[in-house]
Automatic annotation (TrEMBL):
Pfam families: LUD_dom (PF02589). Gene3D superfamilies: NagB/RpiA/CoA transferase-like. This is L-lactate utilization protein LutC. Residues 29-172 form the LUD domain. InterPro entries: FTHF_cligase-like_sf, LUD_dom, NagB/RpiA_transferase-like. Coiled coil: none annotated.
């Protein structure tokens, strides 16, 4: 009888947690899940705040930052004044500055394609990521992200190498069973609010 009570209590607790998550706004749910997964989350309401956040991250990382980037138009436009910081080849760098395709709110994960990863495998990229994204890139789950990719890219230009990074712990031992077998990257996310109420 005691066993049934424990199972019922655990089931009830899980349902309550899911219901609370469903009531959270998408950006709050994402931030909660992302930080639970070990990520460092910085929310910005202006491009000036993005620049300040970027400088703070560089300061936290210290003197020996060798940064590369995916050199996307988004990254080059947003971080134009800092291009001298991310001029190292990917193979020689220890920090990778990139944008992403989508932020998966249900997982607290970040969806990348070969465009962001420069056609490399995740384990061939530096161990520390700085990701720039906008709130309009938030989607509920991977399926919604896939539908978005299908709409955004013509059939003959669809990117390959789809990866959803969802473990951001420096120590892989801290990862959960849900992220077993996936890459770990120490990840800073600079999120810019671009949706108006």
């Amino acid at each position: 009888m005691n066993l049934f009570r424990k199972i019922f209590k655990r089931d009830t607790t899980e349902k309550l947690r899911r219901k609370q998550e469903e009531q959270l706004p998408a950006d709050e749910l994402f931030a909660q899940k992302f930080t639970e997964n070990g990520g460092k989350f910085i929310y910005c309401t202006s491009e000036i705040e993005v620049q300040e956040a970027f400088r703070s991250i560089l300061k936290e990382l210290g003197l020996y930052v060798k940064m590369s980037s995916n050199a996307s138009p988004t990254i080059e436009a947003m971080f134009e004044e800092h291009t001298s910081f991310f001029s190292f080849p990917t193979t020689d760098s220890n920090v990778y500055l990139t944008d992403c395709e989508y932020l998966i709110t249900s997982l607290g994960g970040i969806m990348f394609t070969s465009l962001q990863m420069k056609h490399r495998k995740m384990n061939e990229l530096p161990d520390t990521f700085i990701v720039f994204a906008k709130t309009s890139q938030m989607v509920k789950d991977i399926s919604e992200g896939m539908r978005g990719l299908n709409k955004r890219y013509p059939a003959n230009q669809k990117p390959t190498g789809l990866v959803t990074l969802q473990s951001f712990f420096e120590d892989p031992e801290k990862s959960s069973i849900a992220t077993y077998g996936t890459s770990n990257k120490k990840t800073y996310l600079i999120l810019l609010e671009d949706l108006t109420n």
